Amino acid sequence: MRARDRPDCTAITAQLDAWLARSMWRERMEWGYRDLPPRVIAEPLLRIPGHRRPHEICVYCFGGVPQYIKVNTFPHGAETVSGCFDIALRQLALYAKPSPAPFPAEMDPARLFDAARRLSAGLVYLRVDFLVAEGAPGCAN
């Protein structure tokens, strides 16, 4: 919602109630949601000029070790652009569209890999998602 718009509290409450009634465990069999009660979390809205939403960097970890990265960008007025890389940042032909998204030059991959390694320690598989806005990563989930 834009700041100049007047909120429709009834519609917002109805949407939140609908989301809270859903179970990601039942709908998508996402094991992490099995015993987690639904909650609403409000966070600051991240924006990037010229894009619909922040860039995503998804680090795929197996056995606690980062193996490959998928970068998604969301330019205004265009389709989502994705690119995949190994941990040496060599491009891979996974999910890539004709004009793949580059790995963000301002990002330090070592920091992302270290965080992903710590978050995925002890798990067979975990995808660690980072949102990138204003040149700084934040962990998404």
TrEMBL record:
It comes from Roseomonas fluvialis. This is Uncharacterized protein.
